[in-house]
Amino acid sequence: FTLSSFSLSFLLPTKMQNNLKKGISELKNQLNLFNAEKEKWYKEQYRLKNVLHEEIKKIKNIKESADKSTLEFKNIKKARDVENQKVKIFIAKIKELREKKALLLKKYNVKEPEKVHYQIEQLERKIETEALSPDQEKKVMKQINSFKKKIGKDSELETVIHDIKNVSTPLDHAKRKADELHNKLHDVRKESRYPGFKEASKHITELKEKQQEAYHNFLEAKKRFLEANKAIKDKLKLLNIAKKHEETKKSIENKKAETLNIAKIHQMAQKVEEKIKKRQKITTEDLLAFQAQK
Question: Residue ranges of the alpha helices (H) in the chain?
Fold first, then answer.
């Protein structure tokens, strides 16, 4: 409902206007506090938002690094499996050659063929490196032939022993390579497990919760700020209306007083005129009233 000028003049006397002013002052103090709180939480949620952004960048870098390690892990594992397959093939070949060697040793009744083969190599090296006389060289050749007869007819056993050596060398190489790759695989596996990822994820979750809490506090403080601001505006509006009606009331009262005063002066002037006609005594007050009318 709307208040008339008359009713407001009664509802909002001077004391009530003073109460309004006091309430506005208190609300302004609250407004300043709410504004400070609002700004504090806004800055805090903004700071946490930036920190969160940096932490997310870090965890992305961790994941990218781990993904690269995972790819490297797969490649190393593949290479290791290739070397392990080579080892299996070489072992199978050596096993086959050793079985053949065992049959030849039994066939030619030879013991310690590697020792005999070593003696042949030493004698052949002696001929190549030492200045032997014809008789000495002939004697050494005789020894070599004797040893070769022990190894087997047409050097069949020697060929098998040579084949075993030829297979043993790449077998050893494949084993070393497989072991190296296996150790490297173990190191890369650690890197591919996202080191620090769990801790970073937990930290990000905590930051999100804090940022959301700060943002919620900011909204609450903003709400209180707006409510206080609205309350101030409402009270100011009511106070301004009251002041206008108070001014209107005073203006009406002044006009009313002025009208009454004029009527009184006019009445006194008439009395003076009557006194003049009747030749009665005229006082100073009568003269003043008579002059005021003019």
Answer: 5-11, 14-108, 113-129, 134-151, 156-191, 197-277, 284-293
Structure tokens at 175: 């084993």
Q: What pTM did the predictor assign?
A: 0.42
What gap in Å lies between CA 235 and CA 53, rounded to an integer? 44
Cα three-residue angle 33-38-43, rounded to 5 degrees:
130
- Rounded to the nearest 5°, which phi and psi values hold at 278? -85, 0
Burial class (CB in 10 A: 0-12, 13-18, 19+), 27: buried
Average pLDDT over residues 106-133: 77
Exposed / middle / buried, residue 111 (Cβ in 10 Å: 0-12, 13-18, 19+): exposed
DSSP letter string, 42-94 = HHHHHHHHHHHHHHHHHHHHHHHHHHHHHHHHHHHHHHHHHHHHHHHHHHHHH
Q: Considering the chain, what is the average pLDDT of its residues? A: 79
Report which of 176, 178, 174, 172 is spatially closest to residue 77, judged by C-alpha positions.
178
Q: CA 269 to CA 267: how far, in whole Å?
A: 5
Contact 267, 285 (CB under 8 A): no
Do 218 and 42 meet the contact criterion of CB atoms below 8 Å apart?
A: yes
Q: Determine the Cα–Cα distance for residues 288 and 265; give it in Å rounded to an integer.
A: 9
Read off the pLDDT of residues 174-184 as tens digits, 9 standing for 90 and up. 999 988 888 88
pLDDT at position 200 over 50: yes
The answer to whether 117 touches 101, Cβ cutoff 8 Å, is: no
Q: Which residues contact 63 (CB under 8 A, 6 or more apart)?
A: 194, 197
